[in-house]
Specification:
Elements lengths: L2 E4 L1 H9 L3 H7 L12 E3 L7 E5 L2 E8 L2 E9 L9
Parallel strand pairs: 1-5
Antiparallel strand pairs: 2-3, 3-4, 4-5
Length: about 80
């Protein structure tokens, strides 16, 4: 099992998002990483992984069984700079 830590930036973003509580609850699924759905490894990006929750993406890194949720971004229209 993985320990999940929300960075201050991510908590601030969650408070501003109307679906923040839902996203926070869905992040509990990440405790079973790597056996969870909607997770993708990112390449050429400053974060290692992203977790999809509706129109939002939870960006996180993992090191020594500690998951650090760094940022939460809303995806509207995709382009080359989406992630």
């Amino acid at each position: 099992m993985v320990e999940i830590i929300f960075q201050p930036k991510a908590m601030k973003q969650l408070r501003k998002i109307p679906q923040g509580i839902e996203i926070y609850e869905r992040c509990a699924e990440l405790k079973h990483f790597p056996y969870c759905r909607n997770v993708k490894t990112l390449t050429n990006h400053k974060y290692q992984y992203r977790f999809r929750v509706g129109n939002y993406r939870v960006l996180f890194n993992i090191q020594n069984d500690i998951m650090s949720i760094v940022s939460i971004e809303e995806v509207r229209k995709r382009d080359d700079n989406t992630y």
